[in-house]
Amino acid sequence: MKRRIALIAIALFPAIALCDPAKEAEKPAAPAAAKASKVRLKTSQGDIVIELNAEKAPVTVANFLSYVNKKHYDGTVFHRVINGFMIQGGGFAVEGKSLIEKQSGKGIQNEGQNGLSNDRGTIAMARTNDPNSATAQFFINVKDNAMLNYPSNGGYAVFGKVVEGMDVVDKIKAVETGTTTLTMRHPATGEKIEAPSTDVPKENVVIKTASAE
């Protein structure tokens, strides 16, 4: 099973997104429908407000808003946290004492060449080595991560930035992490498969709601 990769040097930084499988790329039906300019993430650590850049990343913003509007992110967690790199979420929800990967749609067209850089405070899409495999999972850079910019493996598509709550992001990046078994889904069948994962917060950091503003 593939793990989402978001770096050049895997030996230095493990995969950015765990095992949300690479999927066939497809453009959202109507990128122009991305009318909201901001999204508020109400988390267990406080609120984070993201300003979206539909001009530079229309496909990615439309995709992100589609998951926001169907409440996909509500109840998900930041399941991968690496202080000095990024915090990642949008893929796993709490069920009992387990973190279970949610079903997501097909991969979208990568907009990593849009000229936006993976600077501190920006939000970008997590994916596998396939540039067109991003679905629902995203990450927020907690430092400037130039190694994620185009042309590195097609670039990692930035589609917005934190305009409120960077102090919350900094609280999340500092939480204690460890190795935990996550329940992921088989790329072809959707069957649940358990696998160990590193850099998982020991106490769940939950996205209570995600709402467009």
- CATH fold-level assignment: Cyclophilin
Helical stretch count?
A: 2
Work out the radius of gyration.
Answer: 15 Å
Q: Uncertain runs with pLDDT below 50, 5 residues or more?
A: 1-33
Give me the CATH superfamily. Answer: Cyclophilin-like
Mean of pLDDT? 86
Query: What spatial form do the alpha-carbon principal axes imply?
Result: globular
Q: What is the H/E string?
A: EEHEEEEEEHEEE
Strand content: 35-45%
Instruction: Name the CATH architecture.
Output: Beta Barrel
- Quantity of strands, as a count: 11
Distance between the termini: 37 Å
Largest sheet: 8 strands, antiparallel, barrel
CATH class category name: Mainly Beta
- Helix vs. strand class: mainly beta
| Domain module count | 1
Please estimate the helix content.
under 10%
Could you describe the 3D structure shown?
- Helix content is 9%, strand content 35%.
- It has a single domain (36-212), classed as Cyclophilin-like (Cyclophilin, Beta Barrel).
- A hairpin with a 2-residue loop joins strand 4 (86-95) and strand 5 (98-101).
- It has 213 residues and is mainly beta.
- The model is unreliable at 1-33 (pLDDT under 50).
- The strands form two sheets. The protein has an eight-stranded antiparallel β-barrel.
